[in-house]
Amino acid sequence: MSALCLALSSNASASLIDAQQVAINYDVSDEQLSSKGSHAAFTKAMAEAKQAIDEETKGWQEKYSEIESSDNPIQYFHAGNVAQLESTDLIVRGNEMMLRVQVEELFSKFGEKIPSEVALSIRQLRISVAKLRMSITNVMDMEKQLRPAISADKASFTMTPDALESMKAATKNAYFH
């Protein structure tokens, strides 16, 4: 129950890193343009990373459902889990941003030379990573809703004779034009 781990699995973490590495190492040379095999290796690597990330997303959606259907959802968000959840969110957001930058670099470098199946596999991977981020964000939003509201220190004013004299003095010295 409260032992639910709100961290990224090692498989999904490795897949995020693998996807970045594949994107970095992709090169569109004349040799590769004529060879379907090199594109197949790239799209296969992207598909494997996408599959692992999709499985992780499904896991996060299940965690969300379990927490939501619980009679006492706050029990899932003890200090350790919240710290893991925040770290997981940062990791996924950082990886998503790095992947976006690498893909933009890839498209600016090679542009129209990139075959459509490669572009499609990249797009599908980015969509999967965005879905994972949103699943984690949904769990974080639930935690924020359950968090007790922190009462803000409200300014209090007690009318004392000294305060009354100070207000009178301040009002007397004000000039209105």
Account of the protein in words:
The protein has 177 residues and is mainly alpha-helical. The protein has 6 helices and no strands. It has one domain. It is elongated. It starts with 9 loop residues before the first helix and ends in a 5-residue tail after the last helix.
In summary, what is this structure?
The protein has helices at 10-25, 30-34, 36-69, 79-110, 116-146, 161-172. With 177 residues, the chain is an all-alpha fold.
Low-confidence stretches: 30-34
Number of strands: 0
Q: What's the SSE pattern?
A: HHHHHH
Largest sheet: none
The Cα radius of gyration reads: 27 Å
Strand content: under 5%
How many helices does DSSP assign? 6
Class based on secondary structure composition and strand pairing: mainly alpha
Spatial shape: elongated
Tally of distinct domains: 1
Helical fraction: over 70%
Query: What average pLDDT do the residues reach?
Result: 79
Kindly, what is the distance between the CA atoms of the first and last residues, rounded to a whole number of angstroms?
69 Å
